[in-house]
Amino acid sequence: MTAAAPRRPYDILLAEDDAGDALLIEEAFLSRGLGQNLHTVGDGVQALQYLRDPARPRPDLILLDLNMPRMDGRETLAAIKADSELRTIPVVILTTSDAPDDIAGSYQLHANAYVCKPTDLDDFLGTIHTIDDFYLGLVRLPRP
Length: 144
Description:
CATH superfamily: Response regulator
Mean pLDDT: 89
Number of strands: 5
CATH architecture: 3-Layer(aba) Sandwich
Distance between the termini: 30 Å
CATH topology: Rossmann fold
Shape: globular
Number of domains: 1
Structural class: alpha/beta
Oligomer: single chain
CATH class: Alpha Beta
């Protein structure tokens, strides 16, 4: 699949406490060279601080790990979807868990997608590219 040309530069918020995974995700986006601006935070508390800071750009997409310290992805997702200013931002759960309860629980909290992180490097990069193509190239998102 060829990457869709972006309509404009776009912002992605990554909430990920694993530095290695965050680096791989950053590299996957950078390899595309399509104008993505990736902002990384290490937990849900930082994610909500970022999202509620008027000086920060509103992300076009949030990639959210489930298992993080302080405030995990479930609590963060619930807070995002309960906030009328934030709920229209697509949230993709990107996690190692393939537990049925985690998947069902994420959709009950209104996640837009649930993606398990592949263990193979090429598959991992391909997964990030697919998310990029779909949410930031194909899908039309509301502007605030």
